[in-house]
Amino acid sequence: MLKITLCGGSAQGPEDCVLVRTKNGTRRLALGQLLYVEMYNRTLRYHLLEGSAIDSLTLRTSFQKAAEPLLADGRFFRCGATIAVNLHHVMKVDGDSLYLDNGSAVPLPRGMLGEARRRWASYRQGGSLAGIS
Predict the structure, then answer these.
(1) What separation, in Å, do the N-terminal and C-terminal C-alpha atoms of the chain show?
(2) How far is CA 39 from each of CA 15, 26, 104, rounded to the nearest angstrom?
(3) For 19-67, what is each residue's pLDDT tens digit?
(4) Distance separating alpha carbons of residues 36 and 46, to the nearest angstrom
(5) Whether the predicted pLDDT of 68 surpasses 50
(6) Predicted TM-score of the model (pTM)
(7) Which residues constitute the domain of residue 113?
(8) Where are the beta strands (DSSP E) in 31-100?
(9) Could you give the number of structural domains in the chain?
(10) Is residue 88 domain-resident?
(11) CATH (domain of 7)
(12) Residue 127: pLDDT band with limits 50, 70, 90
């Protein structure tokens, strides 16, 4: 199970982090550096701003349950059965994708465009919509 905690931060103070159990031990990932997380071969794969990806240990639960702490944070939007995107890094919602500030695109399932636009607009206006996924 993921746990969100405070970790060292910047001049603005401590930053929220997620603790991820990997085959090399527990990693502390700053939420601000996390672009999106996806289910990949029964693990959670965390895609980071720097371009790397970190895989969790094998999961024995659903994506919804495993990603629950992230989805409870207003920055994250579940945009498919197995992907949650950090809205802070979304630059554009268009057609069938979310376009991120690192140049990558995350596909949206059919029928999810309206909800994605609503959530992103609300996030940009300062409303977190915490707990809605």
Answers:
(1) 18
(2) 24, 18, 17
(3) 899 999 999 999 999 999 999 999 999 999 999 999 999 999 999 999 9
(4) 6
(5) yes
(6) 0.85
(7) 3-124
(8) 34-40, 43-48, 53-55, 76-78, 83-86, 90-94, 97-100
(9) 1
(10) yes
(11) 2.40.50.1020
(12) low
